[in-house]
Write a structure and sequence with these properties.
Blueprint: E1 2-7, H1 11-21, E2 27-32, H2 38-44, E3 49-52, H3 61-71, E4 76-81, H4 89-94, E5 99-102, H5 107-118, H6 126-129, E6 135-142, E7 148-155, H7 157-167, H8 172-179, H9 183-197, H10 202-212
Parallel strand pairs: 1-2, 1-3, 3-4, 4-5
Antiparallel strand pairs: 6-7
Helix pairs in contact: 7-9, 8-9, 9-10
Protein name: LuxR family transcriptional regulator
Keywords: DNA-binding, Phosphoprotein, Transcription, Transcription regulation
GO molecular function, one term: DNA binding
Length: about 220
């Protein structure tokens, strides 16, 4: 029996996915909506696979995955979300997860993703796989003990486009209009850029991006 735990702050989504998966004879599914209760649930019962929503209050999917993998390094973790994953790809990979599954995936795709994770195979949607050709900017970063290490910052085409729009002084609303995307998508992408560059504001992001040669000086 494959024991699965779904962590999603939308109970209807979790319950619907549970119903879908338990149509399989070898799958047993539990659902919780509070990400902060995940470790307690794992202590109470052994699971083979976790399906984590990406955006949740308390702990988001990335933070939760890192926490779980520290305590349970062999746990198979899949990010289960309806949002675009491309802006968070590097962070998700660094979280040591087993793959990504869209909430629009069919039952067959979801079951396949779980089975692949159990076989130590990484599941990546085709549209995301095609975006892996991204710009690499490498700089030398000096550590506190004086040693130098290579620091790689990767931005995909969407992130480059949004950063360039930010450098022109456009608001998120105007960027969304200019690039024909939703304002929320712009905001999520900017959050991903901030995380990659380890900054907290648009101004800091522009300064860091120019320093790394990711965008041209104005």
């Amino acid at each position: 029996m494959i024991r699965i735990l779904i962590v999603d702050d939308h109970p209807a989504v979790g319950t619907g996915t549970k119903t879908l998966l338990e149509q399989e004879d070898d799958m047993e599914v539990d659902v919780i909506s509070d990400s902060l209760q995940t470790e307690n649930k794992l202590f109470e019962k052994a699971y083979d696979v976790l399906l984590l929503d990406l955006y949740m209050p308390g702990l988001n999917g990335i933070e939760l995955a890192k926490q779980i993998k520290t305590t349970y390094p062999d746990m198979k973790v899949l990010i289960y979300t309806g949002f675009d994953l491309s802006t968070h790809f590097n962070l998700l990979v660094e979280s040591n997860i087993s793959g990504f599954v869209s909430k629009t995936a069919s039952k067959e795709q979801l079951v396949t993703a779980i089975q692949c994770a159990l076989r130590e195979e990484v599941v990546v949607p085709l549209h995301l796989f095609k975006q892996l050709r991204r710009a690499e900017a490498k700089v030398n970063d000096t550590t506190s003990d004086g040693d130098e290490k290579a620091l790689a910052i990767s931005l995909n085409e969407k992130e480059h486009n949004i950063l360039n729009e930010v450098s022109k002084g456009f608001t998120n609303k105007h960027i969304a209009q200019n690039l024909h995307m939703s304002q929320r998508s712009v905001e999520y992408t900017l959050t991903g850029i901030f995380n990659k560059l380890e900054v907290r504001s648009r101004t800091e992001a522009l300064m860091k991006a120019k320093e790394l040669g990711l965008i041209s000086e104005i």
